[in-house]
Amino acid sequence: MVNSCRxxxxxxxxxxxxxxxxxxxxCGEQGxxxxxxxxxxxxxxxxxxxxxxxxxxxxxxxxxxxxMADLKRAKMDIGDRLAASIxxxxxxxxxxxxxxxKFQARDVGTFLCDFCLDRASRFSERVGCRFxxxxxxxxxxxxxxxxxxxxxxxxxxxxxxxxxxxxTQQNT
Length: 172
Known about the structure:
By secondary structure, the chain is an alpha+beta fold. Helix content is about 25%, strand content about 30%.
């Protein structure tokens, strides 16, 4: 994992607030664009997740939304399950991760994902958070697999595929 707290190309994170203008954000995925433009602030006010904007020279280059989640043990391959036989494993969900079109293919997505992994590591020091989960669109599956995320089995017909990463101290 790359050191997620470093500043690449002048990009800095901040938590979304009512003063942030998100109307011009465009990553090319309509549902994600609509989320940041119209839903993210209300989602955050309801404490359903926190959205972090990543800005460069005042412009939003990307964003991530991080809510809590769980991972159902029964849905996992037997080899991926932990010894603890609890029904649901605590997890952090990468609810949204998007990069503005003009900044795609410039390692910004990697920076954002590293930021999420760093947040999960910090969070797990205070409460249970053993897994990181993402609902990946088809075009992003390879990106997450490079990090070690694994697809849950038996997801035929799902538009977004559930992927997970075991979070351990060795991942940080």
